[in-house]
Amino acid sequence: MTGAGQGLGRSHALALAAEGAAVLVNDVDAGMASATVHEIREAGGEAEGDGIGLSTVAHGAALVERAVESLGRVDIVVNNAGISRPSPAEDLDDPGLDLHLGVHLRATVGTTAAALPLMRAQGYGRVINTVSGHGLEPLHPHSAAYAAAKAAVFGFTRAAALEVGEGTTVNAVAPLAYTRMSEAYLSRIEGAEARYATKHVSLVVVWLCSQEWGGVNGHVLRVEGEMIGAYKVQAGPLVAFDRVSEIL
After folding, report:
1. Which range marks the domain in which residue 154 is found?
2. Which one of 12, 88, 132, 199 is least enclosed by Cβ atoms within 10 Å?
């Protein structure tokens, strides 16, 4: 579980632990990771902490290796770690892009690539990635790097789902939840903290990890409070070049 020291990641970790999962709690803030581990253990669950920062494929693979060493096996990977540093598109440079692509995409690729062979071998596995509606339909300026990284995770999720073995799935959630990252936006909505509580997204994550939802693969599910939807990629109709204004 990446980015599990606070917000959605913490909520997912607690929900999965409550269902009996042993959780490797990863967060770049080792103190927050330890706090989540303590909370799980206090509730009678099993958890280990990890403070590795995730920004490369190798980092993601190392986290899976750590999970196997500390917990014995890997059945579930939840890629939740994220970062957002607003910047006008015209000011983006390699470091700014690498920051977003590293945490969102490269780490997700690393954990998934390392976990899938293990999951195929054992005949069971669940990979759940985190995308954003903002990556599919950006609504605010100065978010090009974040949107691009999340859109990349969307594409990776759909593609990786084509390569799983029997009993293994790769899906993603696109959450609208009241967290530190979204507080400035959602706080303008009355009752948003309860309406968009992280527990609603965590419930969907737990469902996706279950045997019941084992036939769901390659989907990106939008979760807004107690409502859920599925993102679909749909091309518009084809027209002759001289009629292009009809489809724009």
Report:
1. 7-246
2. 88
Tell me: pLDDT of 178 over 60. no
pTM of the predicted structure, to 2 decimals: 0.92
Query: Which residue is listed with tokens 């599925």?
Result: 230
What's the pLDDT tens digit per position in 134-172?
A: 888 887 899 999 999 999 999 999 999 999 989 999 999
Residue 81 inside a domain? The answer is yes
Number of domains, the chain: 1
List of long-range contacts for 158-166, beta carbons under 8 Å, 24+ apart: 158/218, 158/220, 158/233, 160/112, 160/116, 160/127, 161/217, 161/218, 162/218, 163/116, 164/116, 164/119, 164/120, 164/125, 164/217, 165/116, 165/119, 165/120, 165/123, 166/123
Q: Specify if 2 maps to a domain.
A: no
Q: Distance (Å, rounded) from C-alpha 214 to C-alpha 25?
A: 24
Q: pLDDT band at 102, cuts 50/70/90?
A: very high
124 catalytic per annotation: no
Tell whether 1 is covered by a domain: no
Which CATH number covers residue 84? Answer: 3.40.50.720
> Which one from 146, 178, 185, 196 is the annotated catalytic residue?
146
Express each pLDDT in 15-29 by its tens digit.
999 999 999 999 999
Residue 102 lies in a domain: yes
Query: CA end-to-end span of the chain, whole Å?
Result: 41
